[in-house]
Amino acid sequence: MKRLIIVWLLSVAPVMTAMAEGKIAFSLSDTQGKVHTLSQYAGKWVVVNYWATSCPPCIKEIPQLTKFHEKHKDHDAVVLGVDFEDISLSWLKDFMDSMSMSYPVLRSDPSQQVTPFGVIIMLPTTFIISPAGELVAHQAGAVTAADLEAFIKRKTEAGKANAPSTKLNTKIH
C-alpha cells in the first residue's frame, strides 16, 4: 500500500508543481482533429470545461458556455470543452450538433487519472487560464455565463489577472 501511494504521488508531482507555479501545458485534439494548446490562446482568457454527455449538470451548463463563448471568442476569451468520457466520435459530434455547441470540444482519455490540471474529481469542472497563461481559478460544479463574466471582470478591474488560483464561484471562499 505504501508503495502505491508513493507511485501515485510521484505521478502527480509534476502536475501539482505546474499548478503551484500557475503554468499549465495543454495539448488536445478537437473533434475535427485540430490540436489546441493553451499557448495558441495567449492574450485571451481561456475557460477549460471538463464535462460528459451523460452528466446532467454538464448538459445544463452547455448553453451558458456557448453564450459566453459567442460573446467573447473574437476578442478576449474562449471556451474549450473537454469531453471526459469514452464515447465514439460520431456520438460526440451528434451530441454537439443537438446542443448547438459552438466552442471547440476536445477529446480526453478519462482513464488517465491525472490531467494537466490535476485529478478531476467531479463533472463538470472548469478551469480559468489568464491572458498570461496562468491558472487563476477553478470550479467543481456547474458555472454560468454570469459567473464567468463576473469573475473575469473582477480580476481585470483589480489588476489581478495573474493572482494565485482561487475558486471561480464567488459564493465559495
What does this molecule look like?
With 173 residues, the protein is of the alpha/beta class. The chain has one domain (2-167): 3-Layer(aba) Sandwich (Glutaredoxin). 35% of the residues lie in helices and 23% in strands. It contains four helices and ten strands, in the order αβββαβαβββββαβ. The protein has helices at 2-21, 56-72, 89-98, 145-158, and strands at residues 27-29, 35-37, 45-51, 77-83, 105-107, 114-115, 118-119, 125-129, 135-140, 166-167. The protein has a six-stranded mixed β-sheet with strand order 5-4-3-8-9-10, covered by helices on one side. Helix 2 (56-72) crosses helix 4 (145-158). The longest helix is centred in the N-terminal third of the chain and has 20 residues, at 2-21. The radius of gyration is 16 Å and the shape is globular.
Full CATH superfamily name: Glutaredoxin
Q: What fraction of residues sit in β-strands?
A: 15-25%
Count of helix runs: 4
Determine Rg (CA atoms, Å). Answer: 16 Å
Separation of the first and last Cα atoms = 34 Å
How many individual domains? Answer: 1
Helix content: 25-40%
Spell out the helices and strands N to C.
Answer: HEEEHEHEEEEEHE
The average pLDDT is 83
Judged by helices, strands and strand pairing, the structural class is alpha/beta
CATH class: Alpha Beta
CATH topology: Glutaredoxin
Query: What does the largest sheet look like?
Result: 6 strands, mixed
Strand arrangement across the biggest beta sheet: 5-4-3-8-9-10
Number of strands: 10
Shape: globular
Residue windows where pLDDT falls under 50 for at least 5 positions: 1-21
CATH architecture: 3-Layer(aba) Sandwich
